[in-house]
């Protein structure tokens, strides 16, 4: 891990990882998108064989595959999926928006009509691991919002199968359109539609660099949630924090990806040293530690600050996906943190509880975009329409000001659309 000591006069904080654009990957994604747009399912078959080493002729998961999935998971796994669904649903039901109308004294009526999106495509990553949690965290906000048609796409294994946990989670949520296709080609299928996969209005969910670049490229054809980069965690801690907890939480994110950022911000030299030692010890005991070890080596950082205020400044400058607060009075710190995807307060609020069970979606802004972006929520699956109904009295009261503004902008036809009504009103 890299130690970065900040002096009192330091104002510039070295950035954590930012997703770097790879021109070769951009061109590859553009080719894939065009291929699927033109060739449809034929392209999906070829690309799935090329990238996933799987021969898939029918992409829709069958009822038999779902039944088989239920036969391969343990009872405690099914119970955990059901509990997560309940917790995440309870949380997101608090976010429900309703339409509203307001009548003013002059008789005009103004309001907002809230409408769920009709169709969304949820991308669930695969390959190195199975992610039933991604199904839950993407699907539940959409279901609570009232989306009519929800489809899932996820890359198959070389035998053309999806993980049992993914299928069970989707089935428990009532999602029937589950497709065995991944990567940029899955994004293209959702964006343009193919013979077997219908076009959607919005695509959500995390993925690798190719998925992220594909989502960015199809934005405008469809909506997207965000461009997700490598996972990030920042722990703000003082000398009283438990170094073994911190080390474990840093490694929990480091094991996601060799590019993941694991950062400690503290004012305590002794804690920094203890956490570094704990990270080394825990890495040596961690099965399949290669990914985490590489991430810690390349993107593990410890900022040692000269004051608590400087530590807060560092956290806000980094604007990480996950921020844990392990200080003597963590609630005092919460209001000072301006930029974070999610904040975890206290020693028992491990980031992992947010990944699986707490309730908020774990689809969060990364790469510093927490400065202006929010977690995935019910709001991502609705659209809002303004409603305007002017009474004659309201129209006459505002007419002159409207014409004045229109003529200030040189838009005479705008002004005359008001003027013609004023003339008619005097007859």
UniProtKB/TrEMBL annotation:
The active site is at 321 (proton acceptor), 322 (proton acceptor). Its cofactor is Zn(2+). One of its GO terms (biological process) is L-histidine biosynthetic process. Zn(2+) binds at residues 253, 256, 355, 414. GO terms for molecular function: histidinol dehydrogenase activity; NAD binding; zinc ion binding. Substrate binds at residues 231, 253, 256, 322, 355, 409, 414. GO terms for cellular component: cytosol. It comes from the Bacteria. Its EC number is 1.1.1.23. NAD(+) binds at residues 123, 185, 208. Pfam families: Histidinol_dh (PF00815). Binds 1 zinc ion per subunit. It catalyses: L-histidinol + 2 NAD(+) + H2O = L-histidine + 2 NADH + 3 H(+). Catalyzes the sequential NAD-dependent oxidations of L-histidinol to L-histidinaldehyde and then to L-histidine. Belongs to the histidinol dehydrogenase family. This is Histidinol dehydrogenase.
């Amino acid at each position: 891990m890299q130690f970065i000591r900040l002096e009192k006069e330091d104002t510039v904080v070295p950035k954590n990882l930012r997703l770097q654009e790879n021109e070769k990957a951009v061109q590859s994604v553009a080719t894939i998108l065009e291929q699927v747009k033109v060739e449809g399912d034929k392209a999906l078959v070829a690309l799935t064989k090329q990238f996933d080493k799987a021969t898939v002729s029918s992409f829709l998961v069958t009822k038999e595959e779902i039944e088989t999935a239920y036969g391969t998971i343990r009872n405690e796994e099914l119970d955990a999926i059901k509990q997560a669904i309940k917790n995440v649903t309870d949380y997101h039901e608090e976010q429900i928006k309703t339409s509203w109308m307001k009548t003013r004294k002059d008789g005009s009526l103004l309001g907002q009509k809230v409408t769920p999106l009709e169709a969304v495509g949820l991308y669930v990553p695969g390959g190195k691991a199975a992610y039933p949690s991604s199904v839950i965290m993407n699907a539940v906000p959409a279901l609570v919002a009232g989306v009519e048609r929800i489809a899932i796409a996820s890359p198959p294994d070389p035998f053309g199968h999806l993980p049992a946990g993914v299928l069970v989670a989707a089935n428990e949520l009532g999602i029937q359109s589950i497709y065995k296709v991944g990567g940029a080609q899955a994004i293209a299928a959702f964006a343009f539609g193919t013979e077997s996969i219908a076009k959607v209005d919005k695509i959500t969910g995390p993925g690798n660099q190719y998925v992220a670049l594909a989502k960015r490229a199809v934005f405008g054809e469809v909506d997207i949630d965000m461009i997700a980069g490598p996972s990030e965690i920042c722990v703000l801690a003082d000398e009283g924090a438990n170094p073994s907890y911190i080390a474990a939480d840093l490694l929990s994110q480091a094991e996601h990806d060799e590019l993941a950022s694991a950062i400690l911000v503290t004012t305590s030299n002794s804690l920094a040293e203890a956490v570094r030692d704990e990270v080394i010890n825990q890495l040596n005991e961690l099965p399949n530690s290669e990914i985490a070890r590489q991430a810690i080596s390349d993107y593990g950082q410890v900022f040692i600050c000269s004051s608590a205020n400087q530590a807060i400044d560092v956290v806000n400058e980094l604007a990480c996906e996950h921020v844990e607060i392990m200080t003597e009075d963590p609630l005092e710190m919460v209001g000072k943190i301006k930029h974070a995807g999610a904040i975890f307060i206290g020693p028992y609020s491990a980031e992992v509880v947010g990944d699986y069970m707490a309730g908020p979606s774990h689809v969060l802004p990364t790469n510093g975009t927490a400065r202006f972006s929010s977690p995935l929520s019910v709001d991502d699956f609705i659209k809002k329409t303004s409603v305007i109904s002017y009474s004659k009295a309201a129209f006459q009261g505002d007419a002159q000001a409207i014409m004045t503004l229109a003529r200030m902008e040189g838009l005479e036809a705008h002004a005359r659309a008001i003027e013609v009504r004023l003339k008619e009103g005097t007859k």
